[in-house]
Amino acid sequence: MTETDADASTGAPTGAAVTPPPERDGGVLSAPYRALTLGCVSTILLIAFEAMAVGTAMPAAAEALDGLALYAFAFSAFFTTSLLGMVLSGQWCDRSGPTAPVLAGVAAFSSGLLLSGAAQSMWVFVLGRAAQGVGGGLVIVALYVTVRRAYPERLRPAALASFSAAWVVPSMVGPVIAGTVTERFGWRWVFLGITALVILPVLVMLPQLRRLGDGRDGEQPAPRFDGRRLRLAVAVAAGAGLLQLGGQELRWLSLVPVLAGVALLAPSAARLLPRGTFLAGRGLPSVIALRGLISAAYLSTQSFVPLMLVTQRGLTYTQAGLALAASGGLWALGSFAQSRPGAERHRFRLVRLGTVLIAAGVALTPLVLFEAVPVWTPALTLAIGCFGMGLVTASVGVLVLRLSEPREAGENVASLQVCDSLGNVVMLTVVGTLFAALGGDATAVGHDAAATAEAGTNVGPGAFVAVYAATAAAASLAVFVGGRLRAPGARGGDGVPGA
């Protein structure tokens, strides 16, 4: 992003409606930003809790609603509609600011929770999940744009680090709390209970959100709404849904939805994302591509760890889950490390270091298949990878905001989130198919750790070797792409524009 048309301290366009407070020594929790930061983090915390908890409550919901045949759709519906929400939110934010997308997203998310919690049939439950996906997509993009509009550049790494930290507690305790609520009060309260809580954070941050305005001065016209991008998003979402559907079963007939999904997904995604994303063009395209690669590599690696420890090393489900819980805090620590003031001038080096740590964590995890290797090894390797994910994920967010013109921030943040989701669904389909072909159960993969472990079958180590070969390849590619983040012709220090 060039700063020639922006206020030097805020990065906002000259004459824009918003000028962040001039306090130079305050942090994201200082008085001018406190309400906004707490509201944003609390909103993400509740969305994250729902994401972590739903897998635990889902089996009980599907059984009660006699909807086991639609079990996978409850997950894919959320994913496919979230893609639409992300693209819509990007354009909406660029046109009128983040306030309306946040409010609409929270309303859609809450309505979906109520619909799923009160559902009397599985199709209604799936419809509620779809509404949650739209809401989640709207909110997450709008909150990134809020960081771009409300915080000076020096505070953006810390703001995005707080977003990452908001996922840590839900990832560790969400499934446990959801399981307890499901057993004592019923699965419906996992959804209905969050509905009442999600309103308060919005009320806390709403006054400051409204002060952000639309980010334009009085002479700038509002950008036109691009219906073509929304149509491409529909095609990408439909293609991703077909890909997930085909990946559920290993049979020749499944090739029909898989091929149809690829035919829709590939050309539409190429047009939806910035030009050069799939070729790792220097600058913004590589930043966005990197997000998809690290998500695909690390999260697929993590999904198979409990099943591998249960079936190959004889651990209990609880013991296997500890390998995931133990590493969760390292993600937040990595995000915190990249947010320190002294880290800014080493932004690109931090990304390279993070990608190397992710690749090492992914590649070393399957060593536990050897009996001579300690059974706790995945806890260590996942911790290494988690620290790298914290470094890279937050840094990628910072770089997207920096490389985006003010009127393009929403669209580029939407592309970042879309690429993240696409990386996950494509990799999970690939590794799920490989796993099933070598004797595993592909339907268990990618929903949540507990479901994956409980679906464990007596598979051989070859199935896991194939899975981790695919994830290690993606992680290795991420190391290469991580070296292409500087924009063409960029000069100056590491990560400091125009330094």
Structure write-up:
By secondary structure, the chain is mainly alpha-helical. It has 18 helices and no strands. Helix 2 (71-96) packs antiparallel against helix 9 and helix 9 runs parallel beside helix 16 (409-437). The longest helix is centred in the N-terminal third of the chain and has 31 residues, at 34-64. It is globular.
Our estimate of the beta-strand percent is under 5%
Please state the CA-atom Rg, rounded to the nearest Å. Answer: 22 Å
Main sheet attributes: strand count, strand direction, barrel closure? none
Kindly state the mean pLDDT as a whole number? 80
Could you estimate the helical fraction of the residues in percent?
A: 55-70%
Order of helices and strands: HHHHHHHHHHHHHHHHHH
Number of strands: 0
Low-confidence stretches: 1-24, 446-457, 495-499
- Structural class by sheet pairing and helices: mainly alpha
Question: How many angstroms does the end-to-end distance come to?
Answer: 13 Å
